[in-house]
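pinning this so it doesn't scroll away 📌
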Amino acid sequence: MPACPTIVVMGVSGSGKSHVGAALAHACGVDFVEGDGLHPAANIAKMSAGMPLDDTDRQPWLEAVAAAIAMRRGKGVVLACSALRRAYRDVLRGADPALRLLYLRVPHDELARRLRERQHFMPASLLDSQLATLEEPAADERAIVLEAGTDLAATVATARRALSMPARPARG
């Protein structure tokens, strides 16, 4: 069994998925997959223009994320993926039924501040559409919910404890 399961770090844009996910992957010594990098060019263009994605737009992206999970199943991997709706998360679970969800919950004002301060194809103007789309994970999804603040090290440490993740073995 891998030291790290398949973990999807989920939440709306600006919640810290990429930073937390990369740090978790590094701590476990497994691959990190940035879900944004799997979007088709048409999705990026649409979001860059300030238009929210619909389910038809998201489908090829979700299939690409699921393929990235399936390719690493049983090896341990951490992915950053908004996974805003349960139906989207179900697609990802189809690639690895044992995947774990780490949901980063951040207050609206903090999300808006983060989005205004970063360089990304997802403009701050789409925050409200993402929040409207978000279906927080249900109890049967076995998600770990973290109130993700600004202290990355503390958030990662809390996530590792909640996920019962061991430290990466020392290299000798």
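📌 and the second one:
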Amino acid sequence: MTPERLNALTDGVVAIVLTIMVLEVKIPAEPTPEAVLAVLPFLAAYLLAFVYVAIYWNNHHHMMQSAHRVTGAVLWANHALLFWLTLFPLMIRWIDEAGVTAWPTASFGIVLLGASACYVLLERALIAAEGEVSGVKRAVGRGVKEWASFAGYAVALPLAFVSPYLSVAIYVGVGIFWLVPDRRFVRRG
């Protein structure tokens, strides 16, 4: 199988995730500053989730440009990544209902941790599918960026029970770390 079908599926799922997320956006109840302030935590959660989904889509796109072979393991690793991405709308809905509190913030971290782990699994499956000639292998190298992100999420997750806002700050920091599409793949083109 070629990567094009995998890309088409991923594009469709990401489009649905983004659509569901935007449908969750609530407008202020009244045209007042107080009403706008009331929806700001949700809008911030929406923005963070949107940026993360976009980061995963951008980097998936760049990685798949370096891939030439798709195996069953690659398909399942991609499905696992998509599973975690489809949980983003649920997380922002929960944060909307419960606020930036310990459990929703930690759960957001679980979703980030799961997506991060599955992205690494996808990288490894693509590398295994192509062996030593893998463009993904040459681009990823040791995967320091991936492991640093995973460590950030692992620290932020339990920290949510001490200070949810510190966890959110780590989530934002890791997101900024990935905001520019992965140049390792661009350089390897």
